User: Fold these one by one.
Assistant:
Number 1:
Amino acid sequence: MTHVAPGRADAGLSVGTHAHRGRWRAPALLTTLGLLLVAGMVSSAGVGQLTVSVTEVVGAALQGLGWQTAWAPDSDVTYQALWQIRFPRVAMSLAVGAALAVAGAVMQAIFGNPLAEPGVVGVSAGAALGAALAIVSGGVFAGVLGTAGLAFAGGVGATLLVYFMARAQGRTEVVTLLLTGIAVNAFAGAGLALVIFIGDSAAREQIVFWQLGSLNGSRWNEVAVVVALSIVAGAVAFAFARHYDLLALGERTAGHLGLRVERLRVVSIIVVAVLTGAAVAFAGIIAFVGLVVPHAVRMMVGPAHRMLLAGSLLGGATLMVWADLLARTAVTGAELPIGLLTSLIGGPFFFWLLRRARSKQGGWA
Amino acid sequence: MTAAFSVSGVTVTIGEATLVRDVSLDVRHGEVLALVGPNGAGKSTLLGVMAGDRTPSSGEVLCDGRPVAQWSAVDLARHRAVLTQDNQVAFPFRVHEVVEMGRAPWRDASAAEDVEAIARAMAEADVTHLAERTFTSLSGGERARVSLARVLAQRTQAVLLDEPTAALDLKHQEDVLTVARSLAAADVAVAVVLHDLSLAAAYADRIAIMERGRLAALGAPSEVLEPALLERVYGVAVRVIEDADGYPLVVPVRSHAR
């Protein structure tokens, strides 16, 4: 089939001449974020009860990777502290931040709404319920991986439930989906309250602390799980970047351009559930990263999803590494829950977004 | 030559309501077919059935001789482009990015071909000067023209336009239908929903008048634009007069206007 319609008026103009103003912005943002990330990682690894110099951090990292340099720390204690406590924690914060931010960007793309966030569709609440059940039930589920596994299952289950409840006649309306998300959130919240009510005081304390979110005590095997899941789900998201752009035109028009909207949505829902579930399972509920980061990136480099996803990945990792450093060091001798910190910043930001949307376009219908 | 769209006996019911009732018509390559009728007559629904958005309750739509349901999404996107009434873009994409999205079905097209198609589409829809603006900052009429440019960039053999002139000023209304005519000259099949009967009379090869879901008349403008028929369909008395260029003008009888 030919697709050229000859005989139209000659245009004589090239799109290439549209200069693409602000083209430098994307590489500049990625470079800046990359530098900030590395700086954050090195600082976070060096700061704490045992202060380690920048060169020693780098030296220890290289030594662990099998490259002996003059910068390697003299004492084995320092080396062990870095590799067993600090490095896995930094790696975990990086992976969790990247996963949450990418999940947020994907969620906003499939809802066509910058307010959509993984927490909104019930992933966090479902995961919290799963983890609380594991903590209370004891036995095989009481271990770290057991808790994480149930949290993950709860998150995925809640998301799928929302999605299939909101479907009607092969389509999903955004309003219905968000309202169903509210119902699932309320239900999971009530379940969580019930579990806390039933549990003994030790379990209660554990649940409450997990809910607040923390990267304390991250281990390499946990990091490996989060990184592996994030890489797979993230790769799928990047593969769909162009499709997410089309989705901005609305479901119908995207369909007219050959996009299989329903299939894209199902796959994306699973991507979001995997990314968020993996992050929440090991770090607890860390809200608003998926909201703030993609929004900020969009304001700087525009809404095209290849750059948005790349920027969100780096931005989420950077934000979380620095937030964890702040959480660890803000109060002497104690550690703030990181979820508390992100909500403190994210909550007001959410209000600001709402107000801005209402004044500019009369809100989201 | 087979028709780009062949609608036979199509009925669409939603619950109690029958939106389209037993409509049969063809949209041929190289013609502009105008769909007209009062609000709620089923024009957009019929267009949606042709586009493949909506499965008819009964009846069938063939695209180039093959039932619409049997086409894959991408093949259909390479065959027909659709301009809907609702021209929203969720995020602040730039105009050239939106037009570029029209190239999505042609994944194997060369970059040069894409660039040429986008530039020409933007020139034809008169939006080249808006290229770097964000879509969300445009006026209603500008949005409609950018969306039209996106449809043109898709370079299909059939084009379905749902009220492309609704938000446009006088000049751009004429421009859009001139574009429709040049598409038809290139053997593209064009179906366009219009409200302005004089506009339809001047630019369409055939006019389909819809009345409460039914096809009330189908034919050349001079055949179907009958005052008695229009009065029945629209519920208002009209005069059909001839302008200096020989095109029919449909004017409501306004003896009591002032």
Number 2:
Amino acid sequence: MVTISTEPRLPAVVRHLFPAFAGLPLGPLLTLSLRSLAGRQPRLFDRLGEHRTACYFIDPVDLGFAFTVVPDAERSIVRVVRKSEAATSSVQIRGPILTLLSLLDGTLDGDALFFSRIISISGRTEAVLALRNTIEDAELRPADLLGLRGALARLVDTGILGALGVARQMADRNSRREAPEA
Amino acid sequence: MTSGRMELVCPAGTPATLRAAVQAGADAVYCGFRDETNARNFPGLNFSGEELAEGVRFAHDHGSKVLVAINTFARVNDVGLWKKAADTAAECGANAIIAADIAVLDHVAKNHKQIRLHLSVQAAAATPEAIRFYADSFGIRRVVLPRVLSVQEIAALNRAIDVETEAFVFGGLCVMIEGRCYLSSYATGKSPNLNGVCSPPEMVSYDDEPNGTAARLSGFTIDRYEPGEPVGYPTLCKGKFKAGGKTSYLFEDPVTLNAGGMIAGLKAAGVTALKIEGRQRGKGYVTEVVRAFRKAVDAVEQGGDAIEIDRILAGQSEGSRQTAGAYSKKWR
């Protein structure tokens, strides 16, 4: 039996825009963003409890690199890593990048995605559950991660979420084209 | 027969889900604290005292009530955590406390007379005698009915008691006598009824193996899934086991209770409130299920039929299969 994910994957042309191992300073930028968020919303990280020091390996399967995240509030660390570095983490979460982003903004339900095998998890189940519940409650918008407020925040949210919506439609069309006949 | 409008009681595992449930049309939401005083003690779930106070304010501003589940059984000689939870719920302005342990019921009855007491399903009170005992001793105003009664039995029960009844209409089912499950305790050393967690996640693993993914609890293989096959959360009662040379769901099929088509019958049987299970579920699930039941309950209250609730909620069911459970006992 062959596993066929029906979730949208990035078109090949977009995938090739990203190098196999991102040289962009994504890690430091995301670290800064997460620490800044912790400064503004400290209660958000309380929900993780003891699992805030866990190392989460996030693997967007349609990109050539992965992330490790230690969501320890103002001591949070995000690193861009090679896919081979999964073994050093407490938890591994894998799925198409647009699906993982949808989890972050609450567009999609994490339980449903896991139970239908669109995303996969391994490692410490309790740490995954704590992260899932924390993200569920956080109701994060792109502007929250960027530290924006007011009209500018609304503008940025509209722009980024709109762009993500278009990207999902494109990826959906792409996935349908690439899926083999059942 | 209940004279008023039936109340829709909905789950809230987090403050965001509480707001979602209220906005989707819940008459009341039920929730618990972030400790072992409630039966959904999972990592990242539940409320701090501060969050509960904010949740109560939000719910009341929108015309909804908040019921706080303090429904596990207190440890021997250590009821302090449970009493403190009840005190905090009362301070936060909750409308009711849902409890099962008689020490907790007694504490609330003596110290917080302004707050309603609801008898949790964990108490497994299913006879007029048992319910009258709790009503006479602690002044309970409502009993959450165990999921073992038919609609006819509920009607007979309501004729014999003076307190309100609340019946589950959607969500997960337990096979054991409610409040007395030892399966998870046997496998993990943690009790759903004492620690508030069935199949604790720190003992759950999903292992990819050559013949599929094995879902395990504390090392026991509960189920095995083909690649690509939908998986479930491994609870022993819904595990697949081999017995007598045949592999099957030995205790209980992984199905979801859906009594959406029985709302009118439950109303006629005198049920006051309809309860949706699922404090561990996310906002999307809660919003969809609450909206569907809101429409169904409103339709029944206006004298019509429940909407096509089965079709709407098909995607939200465990294993995509539904049952009316004991409400329509065909085996008696």
